[in-house]
Specification:
This protein has a six-stranded parallel beta sheet, sandwiched between helices. The chain is α/β, with parallel strands linked by helices. It contains twelve helices and six strands. Helix 3 (about 65-75) packs parallel to helix 4 and helix 9 crosses helix 10 (about 185-200). The chain has two domains: about 5-135, Rossmann fold; about 145-220, Arc Repressor Mutant, subunit A. One of its GO terms (biological process) is phosphorelay signal transduction system. GO terms for molecular function: DNA binding.
């Protein structure tokens, strides 16, 4: 079955260009387009795509609010990739907090876009390297709190090893499984258990939490 994609952007030529690129890619099908945040939410709930490419700066309901609405209404089954012309830190933070599974700049080429769609569909996350460097630098400077330490103490040794790998840039379940000599299903179980214990909703947030814990995370291994 192809990965079903919805394109949400108020720039019609941009939507057309993305559609043409994706329609020439194997195993990806574009199931609809939307030009506003409100229309994006309605189309996502009607078409039930696997992945939504969501522009963050649309008229009316913005892409961040639309992302939050789609993720909440679908209970996380529909994955959203935030796509924008800008990589400002505050937009990245807000998009990820709203539930976005990835963050790409519009300047990325089609191969990176396809990679992000496939990553989101399999439950991974892809964030622009330029955005990642800025975000990680900020996160690394934040203080570790007593709440963080309590959450860390609640993780099993296997969950800690998974979080550590995610925080070093390993993105796919298959890579984590190979590194830890575990099955992919076991890795998924550890990741979702860590989500609940840490209080995050996706792999990017979990990886950033691991970056902030840094040495304290390593000391538990």
């Amino acid at each position: 079955m192809p990965i079903r994609v919805l394109i949400a952007d108020d720039n019609r030529p941009f939507r057309r260009g993305v559609r043409l690129r994706l329609e020439s890619t194997a195993h990806i099908a574009v199931v609809g387009e939307a030009g506003t945040g409100t229309d994006a939410v309605a189309a996502a709930l009607a078409e039930r795509p696997d992945v939504v490419l969501m522009d963050l700066e649309m008229p009316g309901m913005n892409g961040i609010d639309a992302t939050r609405a789609v993720v909440a209404a679908s209970e996380g089954e529909i994955r959203v990739i935030a796509v924008t012309s800008h990589g400002e830190d505050h937009l990245v933070r807000r998009a990820l907090a709203a539930g976005a599974s990835g963050y790409l700049l519009k300047t990325h080429d089609s191969s990176q876009l396809v990679e992000a769609i496939r990553a989101a569909h399999r439950g991974d996350a892809l964030v622009s390297s330029r955005v990642t460097r800025s975000l990680l630098a900020e996160v690394a400077q934040r203080r570790v709190t007593d709440d963080d330490r309590a959450r860390l103490a609640s993780l099993s040794p296997s969950e800690i090893r998974v979080v550590q790998l995610l925080s070093t840039g390993v993105t796919s379940n298959e890579q984590v499984a190979a590194e830890l000599v575990l099955s992919v299903n076991t890795v998924r179980t550890h990741i979702h258990s860590a989500f609940k214990k840490i209080g995050v909703t996706d792999r990017t947030q979990l990886a950033l939490w691991g970056v902030r814990l840094g040495v304290e995370l390593d000391s538990r291994l």
